[in-house]
């Protein structure tokens, strides 16, 4: 059996998935080997055909249930003792899997991850989302060996510990923050998160204005749920400083370029407006006791 199972949740991104798979099969070999499991969350494009072109891939289809449940299904099917998650719109660079495995070092209490790199520099919406993620990482992960948050698009954990903690919370379907929730539970269970700069993954999230707004609206929905159940401290609530949002809005002004900085700042403002609307909707829809 392989040592590592790479789990890829996917939904209607056949072309991106093809690029992801090509990057994974170009990786250097790791001791014990790895398998790839693709969990198709109800795609209606050519995702199945893409996977069928790779006979060694383990392909699983499920009715659309969201990324969290797709990840959980992949772990259930995994033969490896260790699980490496990567999203379908990501491409791993050489050394990615080896670096994550070495960082875990066989210690089941360690989650290893790395920052994402935006591969679509000319897409202002992808660049704005990346800028926000970079800012969050800079606030939550001041020490690489004791990080507090990593995105679900790219990390490695012990299968046993993942299942012991209950896996990803499927109640976040249709809303972001399942990764925040899992990181919080991981840390509360005395786990440790290591964020490696050398384990590089490129992120190619094609989006326009509508998808950008929808993405951050869903983050607001997820943030509301997260705040109802997350523990205080560690990866949970109560970590943000009073200047957190002000610094979020102003940090693009430190980058070079005039118009680009203004556009980036404007999109970050828009992202927070949409997140606030999502949070407000979730609040208003909650029955009062």
From TrEMBL:
InterPro entries: Glyco_trans_2-like, Glycosyltransf_2, Nucleotide-diphossugar_trans. Residues 5-160 form the Glycosyltransferase 2-like domain. Keywords: Transferase. The keyword Phosphoprotein does not apply. One of its GO terms (molecular function) is transferase activity. This is Glycosyl transferase family 2. It comes from Prosthecobacter debontii.
